Amino acid sequence: MFLLNQPSLLGTVKVLLPSTLNVPNLSPFQPKPENAITIAVSTRVLFNMEKEQQIYERQGLEEYIKYQVEHETEPFSPGPAFSFVKALEAVNTQLRELYPDSEELFDVVLMTNNHAYVGLRLINTINHYQLFIERFCMTGGNSPIGYLKAYHTNLYLSADAAKVHEALEEGIAAATMFTPEKMKEVSETQLRVAFDGDAVLFSDESERIYKAHGLDKFFEHEKEHENKPLDHGPLKGFLEVLGKLQKKFYGKGQRMACPIRTYLVTARSAASSGTRALKTLRSWGLEIDEALFLAGAPKGPMLEKIRPHIFFDDQMFHVEGAAEMGTVACHVPYGIAQRAAKRGRKGEETPSGLK
User: Which SS3 state, helix, strand or coil, does residue 355 take?
Assistant: First the structure.
């Protein structure tokens, strides 16, 4: 059954859509939200809805709904999160083979403020691509943020920067996803996730030192504190759940064939500031499969070689550089760099930062 919001004269009511809508039965069971690794994605990142969004912005809600209903048998084309979601499903397939009764699986929730009138086109599209997405949250114009905690959300991806910021304020890992002009092909059998370090996995403590006192003071600070773990950043929890799933594969002797691979891609220098980053991860009991310390070099070319399904960074400079080279990159609007970016938009010159 699907629970949707239906506008009415009395306000918004819940509508149950029966399972006779030919939802593909790709799994013997649906994990409980409290046991699953819940990934909430908006419709605008899972599918390409650029044309529909333009109709909404230029012609209004009624024309938008009318267009969606008239085209509800036409599937949307894939969006930037599509390959990521397919990779999550590939991991689930292998987990079910190794642990048939386990509910520690990825559970994708479609989170959108669309109206229920659009629901049929979304369901038809999901069936067309044989995606296993059974949880919908359609809020009929209201913000979906309040539902994220109820779903025990581990990661929220959206094209709406304001909603992402709101989710982060609520302590939920979230990022704004951007669409490259031409997305690189990515692995269909191994989920690859790349993280920036400061203000993503870690707090922005070191970034604050850099912004306030410059690079030399930053190096000095990191050397003095190399044995003191950094505080956690907004995406630490997501790396934790990835690591937990990796260990399930390791426990079956599949370390080298694990379908999840993680990367740290940072502009830190290895010798001068890399020690603290690695010791912090070790203190958390977390492993990272590959660590790339670029010493200020652009991240785009390295990400092009890695070909991750998703890359997280707190600075738009690096997000844009990655996207230009075909990587699906997400902006995490957290930490001191966001203040510098706001000043930059007002006309002040801002450096690209430590990241």
Answer: coil
> Does 12 reside within a domain?
no
Catalytic residue among 107, 196, 204, 313: 196
Residues 216 and 333 in one domain: yes
Q: What would the pLDDT profile of 259-276 be if each residue is shown by its tens digit? A: 999 999 998 989 888 999
Q: At what angle do helices 336-345 and 205-213 cross, to 10 degrees?
A: 50
Q: What range does the domain containing 162 cover?
A: 37-177
- Cα separation, 116 vs 69, whole angstroms: 10
- pLDDT of the residue at 350: 33
Task: Write the pLDDT tens digit of every residue in 154-182.
Answer: 999 999 999 999 999 999 999 999 999 88
Report if residue 320 sits inside a domain. yes
Extract the runs of DSSP E, i.e. beta strands, from the chain. 2-8, 11-17, 37-41, 47-48, 77-78, 106-112, 135-138, 153-158, 174-177, 191-195, 260-266, 290-293, 310-313, 329-331
Residue 204 annotated to the active site: no
Q: Are residues 41 and 142 in the same domain?
A: yes
Looking at the fold, whether 171 and 42 belong to one and the same domain comes out as yes
